[in-house]
Amino acid sequence: MDEVDGMGAGDRSGMSELIQMIKKSKVPIICICNDRASQKMKSLNQYCMDLRYRRPTKLVIAKRAVEIGRREGMDVEMNAAEAMAESCGNDIRQVLNSMQMWSCGKRTAGGGGGKATGISYRDLKERQNEINKDEVLRVSMFDACRQIVEGSRNLSGADSKAVNASLMKRTDAFFVDYMLMGLMVHQNYLKVCGGQFQNAKVKGTEDDQVDALNQMYEATEAMSDFGMVEENLRGGDQNWALLPLCSVLAVKVGHHAGGPNGGMLGGYPEFAGWLGKNSSRGKKVRLLQELRRHMNYKVSADASELRMNYLPIMRQQFEQLLFDKDGARVSEAIALMDEYGLDRDDIFENFDEFTFNSKELKGKKFSDLDSKSKAAFTRAYNAMAHKAQALVAEQGAEKTGRKKGGNGSGGGEAAELDVVDDDKAAGGESEDDGDEDNVEELKKKFLKKGRKSGGGKGKGKAAASKTKGKGKAAAPKTKGKGKKK
Predict the structure, then answer these.
(1) CA nearest 385: which of 338, 340, 346?
(2) CB of 85 within 8 A of CB of 119?
(3) 20 — phi, psi (to 5°)?
(4) What is the pLDDT of residues 379-415, one digit of tens each?
(5) How many other C-beta atoms can be found within 10 angstroms of the C-beta atom of residue 104?
(6) 430-482, pLDDT tens digit by residue?
(7) How many CB atoms lie within 10 A of CB 398?
(8) Which are the contacts of 190, defined by CB distance < 8 A and separation ≥ 6?
(9) Which of 171-175, 200-204, 320-324 has the highest mean pLDDT?
(10) Contact 151, 255 (CB under 8 A)
(11) What would the mean pLDDT of 235-254 be, rounded to a whole number?
(12) pLDDT at site 390
């Protein structure tokens, strides 16, 4: 069973079924996974013998490649085999594939057929780009972000070919994950700028510090340009032809952040924090719209006005009522809630989401209210009806109900009562008609029973006693039938 760490991706109960197969099977089942520490593997680990394998080193692969080449008639140098294994990322299959391509190319160049020639280190360096495994495929998103934000490193005095190769390498790193790479660069480029400024402060010259600040300004401007281009790329007409321009602008951010000689990103690159902030923002916008819908019966304000002008004052009022030193003033708090159409969740959950980060302005959280006060509040709140319990009442419409019975003084009320009484009278008449129909049906049933059974008096009398309460005409007819039979 290969890739068992991915069994929970699309199916259900796949891992438990595999465990049951392992318990019942007499044939060993080999389970292969890439991520041994995955959370999905915890249930399977206790039913398996753990055999861990590591990627072989280039020396081990090189020795085996030399042996395979000798058996296939190829003379492979040891240093060439090590360089080949390193260029292929220690991938045995890629090494064997490269050796096969090399031998086929040599035979073709030699006129076809014949014996394959050897692989020397010099020949390998000349043809390395033809057999090399793409290095970008082995780069993770975090390593690619590091390459971009650190800029061009170790290129002082290099020729134009090396500079262009470095530029293309960093541009390709953007496409490791172009959906998130812009956010990753935005999260980490200021760290590189900060390191450059600290190095300038250590040197002690003001000119170096000014240069570091200018580099930070240029990097921020390039990041702003990237945001504008990406907005045109993803929004509106979705002009995806701008994607190469986005990659170049991301590289430009790293070029200015790292400076002419490249910078250094201390520690591991951070994941994009914008995603979490945007999720929190969406949640608060949704809660603010909910509060606005609850309060629009009393308050006429948009979301921003409600957040800036109403909520801070209302929060202060509820804090004074619920956190009073003499005890929570529950009745006054509930009266204020009913006046604005708020419910219990709005006070104890939603209001806590709209607090200021400043220590001077940050108030108490309603969720921290002591349990005794909360219980008293809940009992008092549940003992009465509230505007927030129905959407119709929230929006200001009055409930209208049908009046049942009673004497009315007004003409409209009397008319409504007359309609109700007529309905009741009509209903009573229909019930009487239904009773008469039921009696007739019972008569027919007893007549059929009497004919089929051919019984005597006992059955006739029993039928008469059953139908006695329903109608007077039923008794003599059934009795007569009984006597005749």
Answers:
(1) 338
(2) no
(3) -65, -35
(4) 888 887 776 655 444 444 444 444 444 444 444 433 3
(5) 11
(6) 445 555 566 677 667 656 555 554 444 444 444 444 444 444 444 444 444 44
(7) 6
(8) 216, 219, 257
(9) 171-175
(10) yes
(11) 90
(12) 54
Residues 141-160 have a mean pLDDT of: 84
pTM: 0.54
Q: Residue 270 and residue 198: Cα distance in Å, rounded?
A: 20
Q: Is the dihedral of CA 19, 23, 29, 32 positive or negative?
A: positive
> How many Å apart are CA 365 and CA 374, to the nearest integer?
13
User: How far from each other are the two terminal CA atoms of the chain, in whole angstroms?
Assistant: 85
* Tokens read off for 372: 């005794």
CB–CB of 185/223 below 8 Å? yes
User: Alpha-carbon distance 142 to 144, whole Å?
Assistant: 5
CA angle 328, 331, 335 (to 5 degrees): 125
Residue found by looking up tokens 């419409």 in the block: 397
Nearest C-alpha neighbor of 351 from the set 375, 318, 376, 380: 318
Confidence (pLDDT) at 336: 84
Q: Which domains does the chain have, with CATH numbers?
A: 4-45 (no CATH), 58-133 (1.10.8), 140-272 (1.20.272.10), 294-394 (no CATH), 456-485 (no CATH)
**What is the C-alpha separation between 116 and 69, in angstroms, rounded?**
10
- Please count the CA atoms within 13 angstroms of the CA of 263 that sit on its side-chain side: 33
